[in-house]
């Protein structure tokens, strides 16, 4: 059979790289600098203002091999005022961090880890909003000018803290790499994460563009926290570090009890079989969907207000399946995703199953 290229040019599906020499445009005196990307490319994506590629001003302290001159993270400009506050954030050795790309099962893993850390206190879990129990560190970059300062809130939390971030490894607080708190990284097939992100932008931000445009923005790295593959590959490089636990949404779906046991082992906590079963019930899709403490209701309200747009009815815990892209994306877009993933993984001789199936404690 003749191989057919998708309708878009190959140039747009290869790893996005920025030129080696770039003017340092914004953020003087910062650990980062920003180079604006043309606004028309992210038409309808930013809540307000522009969009930039963020670069490290000098070699970051994260212990991964990387070409730091070319490495960048795309973020709405609303993030710029908080990036140094995040980078200088005071880390504690007994913190637990949940780091993911958006829509990879972050909330699910936060609830899981919170219960492990807090001896299965289901009462508090149901009565106190997860965003208070486990703050999203850089949320004020997503939605600026809200009274609730998430960085200050995280700073004030008693130990042991459970902190969520979507930032790539090299933009996380620099003390992470010296104090070495435990970090849980959750991977999800980018096609499923992208379709989930599309619904998130429609339901939470009022995105009015087409699904196809959103998917191309995701592949080309024009949505917050992308490009996607370097984010994943950095944590893949770090997966054998004793303080890093790399797992996947796919494993949580297929082997939730096993993942709960592994997280408990990683966090050095003991759970009985009965507690694991109770947790499995609490963490089921139906139970999470119907649990107001896990549905980001407050974040939802502030994003809607910041976007100033009418949004359609949206449930945060939406569909919860592996392979949702199969009936939500066209064959052409699926092929573009696959070519793009292949071009990013080929040099490393990796494929998506490697990430989805990896277990730190395979023999547990
Ligand atoms: S966010 O906004 O980045 O914090 O989103 P995140 O929590 O990472 O991901 C949201 C997706 O996770 C699904 N989810 C679940 N799936 C299965 N079982 C349970 N219990 C569960 N809880 C959350 C949620 O439905 C989103 O995925 P989609 O594909 O949109 O359904």
Q: How do you describe this structure in short?
A:
The chain is an alpha/beta fold. The protein is 40% helix and 10% strand. It has helices at 80-87, 106-117, 122-127, 130-133, 139-142, 150-156, 176-179, 190-205, 211-219, 228-237, 249-254, 256-266, 273-282, 285-289, 297-307, 331-345, 352-357, and strands at residues 32-37, 51-56, 73-76, 96-100, 162-165, 182-187, 244-248.
Structure description:
With 364 residues, the chain is an alpha/beta fold. The protein has one domain (90-357): P-loop containing nucleotide triphosphate hydrolases (Rossmann fold), CATH 3.40.50.300. The protein is 40% helix and 10% strand. The protein is built from 17 helices and 7 strands. The strands form 2 sheets. It has a 4-stranded parallel sheet, with helices on both faces. Helix 9 runs parallel beside helix 16 and helix 12 packs across helix 13. The longest helix is centred in the middle third of the chain and has 16 residues, at 190-205. It starts with 31 loop residues before the first strand and ends in a 7-residue tail after the last helix. The model is unreliable at 1-17 (pLDDT under 50). It binds 3'-phosphate-adenosine-5'-phosphate sulfate (PPS). 3'-phosphate-adenosine-5'-phosphate sulfate binds at residues 100, 102-108, 192, 196, 199-200, 283-285, 288, 317-320, 324.
Instruction: Summarize the biggest pleated sheet.
Output: 4 strands, parallel
What fold name goes in the CATH topology slot?
Rossmann fold
* Domain unit count: 1
CA radius of gyration is 20 Å
H and E order: EEEHEHHHHHEHEHHHEHHHHHHH
User: Low-confidence parts, pLDDT < 50 over ≥5 residues?
Assistant: 1-17
Put simply, the count of helices is 17
Q: Categorize the overall geometry.
A: globular
Kindly report how far apart the N and C termini lie: 44 Å
Class, according to the CATH hierarchy? Alpha Beta
The CATH architecture comes to 3-Layer(aba) Sandwich
């Amino acid at each position: 059979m003749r191989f057919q290229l998708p309708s878009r040019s190959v140039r747009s599906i290869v790893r996005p790289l920025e030129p080696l020499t770039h003017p340092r445009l914004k953020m003087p005196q910062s650990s980062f600098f920003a180079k604006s990307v043309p606004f028309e490319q992210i038409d309808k994506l930013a809540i307000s203002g522009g969009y930039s590629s963020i670069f490290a001003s000098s070699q970051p302290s994260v212990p991964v091999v990387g070409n730091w001159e070319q490495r960048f993270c795309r973020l709405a400009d609303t993030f710029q005022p908080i990036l140094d506050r995040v980078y200088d954030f005071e880390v504690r050795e007994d913190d637990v961090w949940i780091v993911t790309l958006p829509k990879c099962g972050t909330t699910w893993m936060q609830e899981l880890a919170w219960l492990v850390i807090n001896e299965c206190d289901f009462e508090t879990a149901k009565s106190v909003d997860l965003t208070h129990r486990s703050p999203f560190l850089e949320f004020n970059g997503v939605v600026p000018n809200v009274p609730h300062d998430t960085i200050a809130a995280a700073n004030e939390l008693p130990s042991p803290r459970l902190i969520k971030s979507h930032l790539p490894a090299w933009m996380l607080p620099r003390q992470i790499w010296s104090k070495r708190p435990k970090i849980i990284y959750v991977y999800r097939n980018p096609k499923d994460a992208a379709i989930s992100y599309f619904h998130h932008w429609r339901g939470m931000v009022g995105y009015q563009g087409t699904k196809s445009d959103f998917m191309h923005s995701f592949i080309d790295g024009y949505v917050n926290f992308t490009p996607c593959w370097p984010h994943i590959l950095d944590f893949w490089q770090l997966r054998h570090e004793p303080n890093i636990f790399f797992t996947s949404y796919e494993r949580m779906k297929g082997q939730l009890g096993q993942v709960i046991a592994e997280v408990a082992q990683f966090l050095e906590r003991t759970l009985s079989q009965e507690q694991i079963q109770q947790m499995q019930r609490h963490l089921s899709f139906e139970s999470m969907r119907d649990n107001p403490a896990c549905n980001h209701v407050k974040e939802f309200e502030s994003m809607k207000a910041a976007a100033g747009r009418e949004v359609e009815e949206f449930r945060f815990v939406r569909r919860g399946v592996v392979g949702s892209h199969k009936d939500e994306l066209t064959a052409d877009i699926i092929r573009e995703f696959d070519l793009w993933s292949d071009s990013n993984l080929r040099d490393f001789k990796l494929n998506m199953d490697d990430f989805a199936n990896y277990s730190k404690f395979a023999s547990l």
